[in-house]
Amino acid sequence: MTMLPFCVGMLFRLLTLCILRTSAENPCKIIQATANCSHLKLTKIPSDLPSNITVLDLSHNQLNGLPAANLSRYNQLVQLHAGFNVIAKLEPGLCQKLPQLQVLNLQHNELNKLSEKYFSFCGYLLELRLGNNRIKEINRDFFKNLKNLRTLDVSHNNLQSARLGSEQQLQNLQELLLSFNSINQTTKEDFHFLSNTSLEVLDLSNNPLKEFLPGCFHAIGSLNSLSVENINLGPDLTKTLCSELSGTAVQSLRLSRNQLSRIYNTTLEGLLKTNLTILDLSNNALSEIDNGSFASLPHLEYLSLEDNRIVQLTPQTFSGLSNVKFLNLRKSLGVSKHSQIHDFSFQQLKHLENLIMDDNSFPGITKNMFTGLISLKYLSLCNCAIQLKTITNTTFVSLADSSLISLNLTKSGISKLQSEAFSSLRHLQVLEVGHNNIDQELTGDELKGLDNIEVIYLSYNKHLTLTSDSFRFVPSLKRLLMRRTTLSKLDLSPSPFHSLQNLTVLDVSNNNIANINEDIFDGLQKLSILNLEHNNLARLWKSANPGGPVMFLKCLRSLQILRLGFNGLDEIPVEALKGLSQLKQLEMQSNMLNLLKPSLFDDEVSLSLLNLQKNLVTSVEKDVFGPILKNLENLYMGYNPFDCTCESISFFVNWLNTSNASVPGLSSEYICNTPSKYHGISVMLFDNAACKDSAPFRTLFIINASIVLVFMIMVIFILFQGWRIQFYWNVSVNRILGYKEVDRRREHFTYDAYIIHARKDTSWVDKNLLPLEKNDNFLKFCFEERDFDAGISEIEAIVNSVRISRKIIFVVTYRFLKDPWCKRFKVHHAVHQAIEQSLDSIILIFLDDIPDYKLNQTICLRRGMFKSNCILFWPAQKERVNAFHQQLKVAIGSSNNAN
Ligand SMILES: *[C@@H]1O[C@H](CO)[C@@H](O)[C@H](O)[C@H]1NC(C)=O
Ligand SMILES: *[C@@H]1O[C@H](CO)[C@@H](O)[C@H](O)[C@H]1NC(C)=O
Ligand SMILES: *[C@@H]1O[C@H](CO)[C@@H](O)[C@H](O)[C@H]1NC(C)=O
Ligand SMILES: *[C@@H]1O[C@H](CO)[C@@H](O)[C@H](O)[C@H]1NC(C)=O
Ligand SMILES: *[C@@H]1O[C@H](CO)[C@@H](O)[C@H](O)[C@H]1NC(C)=O
Ligand SMILES: *[C@@H]1O[C@H](CO)[C@@H](O)[C@H](O)[C@H]1NC(C)=O
Ligand SMILES: *[C@@H]1O[C@H](CO)[C@@H](O)[C@H](O)[C@H]1NC(C)=O
Ligand SMILES: *[C@@H]1O[C@H](CO)[C@@H](O)[C@H](O)[C@H]1NC(C)=O
């Protein structure tokens, strides 16, 4: 019984889950008020979309109809896209259920017969697309209720006629697309239904048109733009068309692909009574243009003759085209060698601003070829086979009266620029001479006269040699591009760029440059884009570079984009990128960078894009990358051998997890290389949690390591200097603990010095020390053999004697070091005494040359413990014995203070 409520609960949950499931499984993409159900093989309109959608895309499905009942749920629809289905019929109620519909797209369906009822309620419709159906005829006024329609597309059907209705209608239509039908003629009656319409665009292209019957275009209220393309009109039908257009408002006529091989001086005559501004005659295999053919087009502004085979242009070809601003002659001249452009051919084009002559072949630029083009601003002569090998000071002399702003000579086979080659072009701002074969030293004179130049594009030439004066005459230059020009000699002083104060873009990439001077970019205060990629700059930044690293980027305060990829860089000095505070984009991909120095990027705080792809970066640590990652928006750092340990990668993984920056390829390109545990695994799978506790561990580790280190240092110190510590320790302890200080005054001692010596050295003492007593009455030694009282034990005697002697003399010999008494007791006691008293009470006399370590090993004393005047050496030479005695007396007489 207790199970029942539980079971019911489970069942309920399962049910709700199922319901949620099915609704979640609705495969349509719903974004705001748009439901996109395209490409889903739907056979029915989904009934579970939000009812307030305004756009529904049902295209590319298998719908065979648009049941009004199903659509009534979405009565706020503004756009309905139902193209690419198998719809053959429409329901009359469609627009009734969708009263707000503006766009109805039914292209690529199987509609063949329309009905008056289909669109009778579609008054709000603005756009109706019925292209690519099977409509053969429109025999009733199906569209007459479409009072607001602006676009009607019935292209790609089987219409025999342009007549889409009998009575006047579609008064707001702007665009009528009738292309790709079977219309073979147009009559006045055909277009009567448009008699109240101001049509912007009428497209009749790709119809088998044979006739334009009188008055056909005049039947249209007004017509702005007519396309009659790909119909093989030929010269005759073109002429008819033009005369039918006479007196209409047509402004744009597109006649391309019509096999119009020749234009007679009468062909376009009919256009005289129009205000035609645009004429497209491209792709017509046009070879001859009679003189004066365009005389009837005084209003023409745009003329395209692209892709034709014109044999010649004469001074009369363009006569009458006084208003043309844009002339497209791209690929328009015949391939035969005879085609030519006569001098003064363009002289009539007083208002021409833009002349495109790309992809042509003609004998050359003659002295007066461009004469008369007084308004010309843009001239493009790209990819022209015109034997332009050398540009001399006369090549462009015919343009001296124009105000040319831009000259494009890309791919024109130029190999040399002579002195003042462009001096006629005083207004020129943009000069493109890229992709040529220029192979020369730029002395500066070539560019002389370009007083207003702003852009020079020299990229992709054979071999440019710069000099310090190369750009002397073009100080107004803003963009200089010299990519892949085998630039040799860039280590010039002064720099070739020194005069270019206004330069903002410099591209010297792909040049294998290996040598540049530190001052190469000096003074380029406005430089904002610098492209140095694909060079060989690695050596300049190596610390091992003779003379030190070359900081060639200094002073570039305005730099925003810096490209240093593909340079073999394996080192970047910390100062290399200093001061580049405006930098937004730094690209250093495909180098060999591994360990970057801390604070390298400290000044690059406004960086938004960093590219370090394909380097040898193993760790991304905070002290290097912290500043640069702060405001970053795009990071490219894949294909590096990341070391996935807490120290190397923890900071980076944290950043990746929290940053909003875009990091393309994060899961596939950021792969751990080491340690073996993570090898081949995505950086994102690195277990960062394990590093969370590493901070206390780290401090612990540091403390431990420090302790061990200090300990080791102490051990080593003690090993070599321990005696000193021990000694001073004893001295200090004895002093502090207040051992009775032995009175230092002479009267308290019986002897001046107690002599400790090996038994075997007795005779030496007897002979060399005792005689001193006789010479000096005040001196009194304590000498065991002579002064010890009989009957007292030797130990006691020694202790007493030491106590009542002011100084203790060690006679140090090898025998002394071996003598057991001396070693074990006498020295020990004496030292003890000395410590109590003061260390200066000991005097060492060396008879043998005994190394310090031996002394230390045997009696734990070192020379360093004593003042130098307490260490005496018995001289080998007899003459010095007196001096020795004198030293000894001084030592015995000296104070016992251990200072
Ligand atoms: C549509 O209606 C749903 C609720 O039925 C509402 O959440 C949504 O915001 C509405 N969308 C629009 C575009 O009005
Ligand atoms: C629906 O999505 C397809 C691509 O899946 C896209 O081409 C189409 O433009 C989208 N339709 C609408 C109305 O946004
Ligand atoms: C146009 O086609 C119709 C029928 O296909 C034909 O009767 C008529 O003669 C054709 N007109 C021309 C000018 O070819
Ligand atoms: C057209 O050219 C012919 C000769 O080919 C000439 O006789 C006639 O005058 C020209 N017509 C015009 C309008 O220039
Ligand atoms: C051409 O333009 C002028 C001035 O705008 C106008 O008066 C004239 O009627 C136009 N011609 C035609 C044929 O539309
Ligand atoms: C062109 O250069 C030649 C010398 O190379 C000179 O004699 C001639 O005057 C120059 N012509 C012009 C137009 O500058
Ligand atoms: C010059 O021509 C080349 C090749 O056609 C083109 O890529 C370039 O954009 C042109 N330059 C200008 C300023 O139009
Ligand atoms: C550099 O630019 C400034 C500001 O645009 C301008 O005034 C100056 O004349 C330019 N210098 C040269 C040498 O063209």
Automatic annotation (TrEMBL):
Topology class, membrane: Single-pass type I membrane protein
Domain of life of the source: Eukaryota
Organism: Andrias davidianus (Chinese giant salamander)
Localization per record: Early endosome; Endoplasmic reticulum membrane; Endosome membrane
Listed name of the protein: Toll-like receptor 3
Membrane-spanning parts: 700-720
Keyword field contains Phosphoprotein: yes
Family, as annotated: Belongs to the Toll-like receptor family.
Signal peptide positions on this chain: 1-24
